[in-house]
Amino acid sequence: MTNRIPSLSREQLKRDWPLLAVIALLFLLGAYFYPKLPERVPSHWNIRGEVDGYSSRFFGAFGLPLIALGIYLMMLVTPSLDPKKRNYPRFIGGYNIIRWTTIGIMALTHGVVLMAGMGYKIDAGKVVQPAVALMFILIGNQMGRFKHNYFVGIKTPWTLANEEVWRKTHRMAGPFWVAGGFAALLATWLPAPYNFAVMMAVIVIVSLVPVIYSYFAYRNIAAEDD
């Protein structure tokens, strides 16, 4: 495991060659399919898995690759800007999982958009939801190891104000994220719109419960200090 802070450096780019290869492949696929795509490309699906939104041919071919590249660069730059940047090497495994799973979901979604643009009938939710569920499981498994920082993790006024609240909140939230990920994964086999409803419920629960917990954890610690 490297003890370096992620940054936009030549050494980091060399280490990230597999991730950069994935992003490059997205652009190559976009260039290949661009002449074959219609003027309007499906880009949004409703809760029943039906296309209800379209984008331009250019965005269909290159929009998600550009967003993926932007996310990749942002996640290299932000640690260097963080006042707590020296903590990143202490949870670099979890940070890299976030980077990889985010780009992976972008790549999968790009494939769905291209296939839909080529006329294949595809339910984006049935394809993307398992990937998002897996991301929840992987990140949840690492969440208890996240160290105090300003860009990654559960950032509330109370977790940012107190490192002990941060530690307790992330240790509590990790199992919630893992359980939520498995629930969303199992819900993939439910018919629409029930699979979508479970996914939304999971997102709300794993987002809201840790926020509430962090508030009460902070209150308890503050009461003990008085």
Percent range of helical residues: 55-70%
Number of strands: 2
Percentage beta strand: 5-15%
How are helices and strands ordered from N to C?
HHEEHHHHHH
> What profile does the largest beta sheet have?
2 strands, antiparallel
Q: Which assembly state applies to the chains in this document?
A: single chain
| Rg for CA atoms | 20 Å
Shape: globular
Tally the structural domains.
Answer: 2
What class would the helix/strand composition place it in? mainly alpha
Low-confidence region ranges:
none
Q: Which strand order spans the largest sheet, edge to edge or round the barrel?
A: 1-2
Number of helices: 8
Distance between the termini: 41 Å
Mean pLDDT: 94
How do you describe this structure in short?
This protein has 226 residues and is mainly alpha-helical. It contains eight helices and two strands. Strand 1 (40-45) and strand 2 (51-56) form a beta hairpin.
Please explain how this structure is put together.
With about 230 residues, the protein is mainly α. The protein folds into two domains: about 1-120, no CATH class; about 125-225, no CATH class. Helices cover about 70% and strands about 5% of the residues. The protein has eight helices and two strands; from the N terminus they run H-H-E-E-H-H-H-H-H-H. The protein has a two-stranded antiparallel sheet. It is globular. The N and C termini lie far apart (about 40 Å). The mean pLDDT is about 95.
